[in-house]
Amino acid sequence: MSLIFKRALATAKSVVPPVKTVDVLIIGGGPAGLTLGASLKNSSITKDLKIELVEGFNLDPVKKFYDETPEHFTNRVVSLTPQTINFLEKTGSWKFIKQDRIQPYDSIVVTEGLSDAKIEFDHHSMATMVENVNIQSSLYQRIKELEQESELKSEDFGLNLRDNTRVEQITKDETNQWPVVHLSTGEQIKTRLLVGADGFNSPVRKFSGIESRGWFYNRFGVVATLKLEFPVFKYAGWQRFLPTGPIALLPLPDDNATLVWSQTVENSEMLTKIDSEIFINLINAAFVLEDVDMQFYYKQLNKGETEGLIEDIQWRINHATQKYSDEQLEENFPLKVVSIEENSRARFPLKLSHADSYVSERIALVGDAAHTTHPLAGQGLNMGQMDVQSLVGAIEKGMQRGLDIGNPLVLEPYWADRYPENHLLLGVVDKLHKLYSIRSEPIVALRSFGLKAVNSMSLLKDFMIGKVSGK
Amino acid sequence: MLSRHIPNVTQVSTTISKRTFIISTLATLTNSQYFKNIQLADEIEDIHNKLPFPQMDEFIQQAREPLHEDRKFPDGRIKLNSLEQSSIFLISGISALLNPANGTHINNFGEVSSFEFVLKNLRDQMLQTSTGRSILRERPLMNNETLDPEWLKTLPENSLGFQYLKFTEDGDSRAPVKLIQDEELAYVFLRYRQTHDIVHILTKSKIDLAGELPVKAFEFGNTGLPMTGLACFAWFKLSDKRKARINMFDSFLNGLQSKPFIGVKWEDFMEWDVEDVRKELGVIPQN
Q1: Where does CATH 3.50.50.60 sit in chain A?
Q2: CB within 8 Å of chain A, chain B residues 108-167
Q3: pLDDT tens string for chain B (287 positions)?
């Protein structure tokens, strides 16, 4: 009997792989996770930390992007503020950005679907459109460069990147209570500090027991990569608040553009499925026509009736624009969309969420794991980058003071720094979404008056640009 | 009614002098309105042209001359500024009250009192259905060319087409729209005007005052045009006996619950039996 028992123990022992121990384990190889890895290695204070980065998906497109840049633009594009770019420059990754695939723009024109109110923000290079994969690739290249500069063997460099690896389970070490992450490869990693950069459904946040609060907007964001009728002369972002949700057309180099269209659940599904010719016409219509026209088109398309729809759209667009001169057209409407990149249409649910805390014992959350927002202000990724900047600062300070970097004493300044700012931005974006979902005429009149009033106050506008772009 | 007014020459001349008085009062009032407008700096030159006083002179002068071509839209509508619109609103409104038999005043008042938001509302009703949109797009006119009387004559007696022919034989009450500034909204109003005879047929109302009043109440419920609502006040001028016979509120409700007439393609209903048309649109005939 005792012999059998011993035998069983021996088998069990031989199956359990050795537990690797690291200083920082980052879950998630998105922009936030990669930026954290790169900037920790870039800092003279934290560069000796042993870091492990785990990503569930395949990072090959990211790794190959720099040398084998694809011809077409991808559909996940974000607007980076000067503040974020500044941070990426400090991290040393910005020089690896493919400059011919990014597009700075100097103004954003915001209109609405229920009145003729309009506001225009002008500021030289107020933001820059960059593909997500371009950011990731630049960070990956920077990590590779840092590894070469360190002249260490890759296993001694202390930043190990593994993709195609999922987190199966997170437990606590029995002796010192450090988090132990069980990977889909069967390996286990014990870490001094576990960072969740693992998105909205963050396993790290669930393990930590930090509650996240918020709501779904009952809207989806539809994205697509588009071609305009000719290359833009003046690069500008266009956004129109329709009662169903804002539509934004943002510039990419030459005649390319990217679309983010918030829509009801039903309409968003329809938009990803309809014939691309109708889709293009509908985008052009959305920037010009009135709500009653759009509602008619949605109704017809949801019923599957497409006959004569394109002619109808073009008739209404011509009718609505014929009273404008060419100059006025240029001022008030974006260039016409003429085609769409194949298979670039996709949709994702929009929600607001904010974690009660970003830190707990040996845990930190950054980016979408801590907060998600409606894309109408283009702030989601920028908020995550600022989180990383702040977290790196907190870890540097902790190390200089000789503290354990997993200690809440080290991490809490990061939360204290970022939470109020993120909360304010989430709140403002949430209220904007709600304000512009209202159809009631007195409210429309009030908000249009407000928008026009703000538009005439250039000092206030400069202040707002400053707030959003971080200048 | 006509005979009471036309021979009275002195009265006509006093109304004319009164009109100029109204215009100058209006000019002062509107003047104060104009200065409230904030204009962009680069439009300063335009402001000079937009000052009401030089324009007033021009307006008065032009009122006495035939209209110059550039005061007209290509389709014959007259270009009006807001001052002119409000003058016509007051003058034609008062004249229509004093002299209800004069069709010009009533027509003019109907047009200038159909404010943009009212007509936009009607147009939006049309834009909500495929039929309505096709009417707006093709802009069919209901006249002798499009609805051939020879063809209407061949239709059965109970058909909408035949009834329509009977109604329009006496005379053409469908004057062109002259004072509405937006061309699409002008068509919407014209379409409303051309629908008027059909309302008579469907509600079984005659063209005397006792028949016209319920039609106006019906139209007010159906279209919400201010002029039709104001016209309903003529009910108070009726004798008690007639008041008791005409139920304006029922007609109003009838118009309210029927399908919006503005989006109906009457051309397609001409061969239908009138009863079927009523059922289709939810109209309850009066009397």
Answers
A1: 15-99+133-211+356-433
A2: 124, 127-130, 133, 137
A3: 344 444 443 333 333 444 445 555 565 555 544 444 444 444 444 444 444 455 555 655 555 566 667 778 888 788 888 888 888 889 888 887 777 767 778 888 888 888 888 999 999 999 999 999 999 999 988 887 788 888 888 899 889 998 888 887 765 557 788 888 888 999 999 999 888 888 888 988 887 778 888 898 999 999 989 888 888 888 888 888 888 888 888 889 999 999 999 999 998 888 899 899 999 898 887 65
Considering only CB atoms, A315 lies closest to which of B124, B129, B137, namely B137
Q: List C-alpha distances in Å: A469 to A265, A380, A451.
A: 31, 13, 20
Query: Whole-angstrom Cα distance, residue A193 to residue A179?
Result: 8
Q: Is B267 annotated as a binding residue?
A: no
CB contact under 8 A, A315 and B124: no
Q: How many CA atoms lie within 13 A of B262 on its CB side?
A: 30
- Class of the domain covering A101-129+217-348+436-469: alpha beta
Q: Does B79 touch chain A (CB under 8 A)?
A: no
Residue A39: closest CA among A471, A386, A420: A386
The CATH number that domain A15-99+133-211+356-433 falls under is: 3.50.50.60
CB B285 within 8 A of CB B204: yes
Distance (Å, whole) CA A317 – CA A281 = 9
CA atoms within 13 A on the CB side of A333: 23
User: Where are the domains positioned within chain B?
Assistant: 2-112, 116-281
Q: Report which residue type is found at B113.
A: S
Would you call B48 an interface residue with chain A, using a CB distance cutoff of 8 Å? no
Q: Do the Cβ atoms of A206 and A47 come closer than 8 Å? A: no
